[in-house]
Amino acid sequence: MPFFRTDDQMHGHPKARRAGLSALGLWDMSGSHSMAYKTDGFVPEWFVASWRGGTKAAERLVSVGLWSESERDGERGYQFHDWHDYQPSADEIERDRERARERQRESRRRLREGKKESEKE
């Protein structure tokens, strides 16, 4: 399961301090949304607008440089600044998941073969 990573020095970063707590709340929820739906840091405008005060908070995040206005596949929204410097990409998440599935298949195969061997004894 991928997690949205937050720098442990974020509390003192000038951009975060200038953004304020309500904007950082939106930033955090949007990061969670982006990881869950593997949007690579793109936050749809509808998601922002679904939060009370979301549009104003998004403007604040843009003004301090934590987000930029963006568009993806004709949908307006926002993009996290430097997303891939701190978060895994959607492709990396899928690659990790496929590796985990393959490890699990191999583990189950070895377990089945081990049971067959012990049944012969």
Q: Would you kindly provide a brief summary of this structure?
A:
With 121 residues, this protein is of the alpha+beta class. It has 6 helices and 3 strands; from the N terminus they run ααβααββαα.
What does this structure look like?
There is one protein chain. By secondary structure, the protein is an alpha+beta fold. It has 2 domains: 76 residues, Arc Repressor Mutant, subunit A (Orthogonal Bundle), CATH 1.10.10; 34 residues. It contains 6 helices and 3 strands, in the order H-H-E-H-H-E-E-H-H. The protein has a 3-stranded antiparallel β-sheet. Strand 2 and strand 3 form a beta hairpin. The mean pLDDT is 91.
Main attributes of the structure:
elongated; 12% strand; 2 domains; alpha+beta; 3-stranded antiparallel β-sheet
SSE topology sketch:
Layout: H1 14-19, H2 21-36, E1 42-44, H3 45-49, H4 54-64, E2 67-72, E3 75-80, H5 83-86, H6 90-120
Antiparallel strand pairs: 1-3, 2-3
Number of strand elements: 3
Low-confidence stretches: none
Structural class: alpha+beta
Order of helices and strands: HHEHHEEHH
How far apart, in Å, are the first and last alpha carbons?
A: 40 Å
Average pLDDT, to the nearest integer? 91
CATH architecture of the largest domain, by name, is: Orthogonal Bundle
The first-level CATH class name of the largest domain: Mainly Alpha
Count of discrete structural domains: 2
- Strand order, main sheet: write it out: 1-3-2
Shape: elongated
Q: Which radius of gyration do the C-alpha atoms yield? A: 21 Å
Largest sheet: 3 strands, antiparallel
* Fraction of residues in H or I helices: 55-70%
What's the tally of helices?
6
Q: Strand share of the residues? A: 5-15%
Stated plainly, the CATH topology of the largest domain is called Arc Repressor Mutant, subunit A
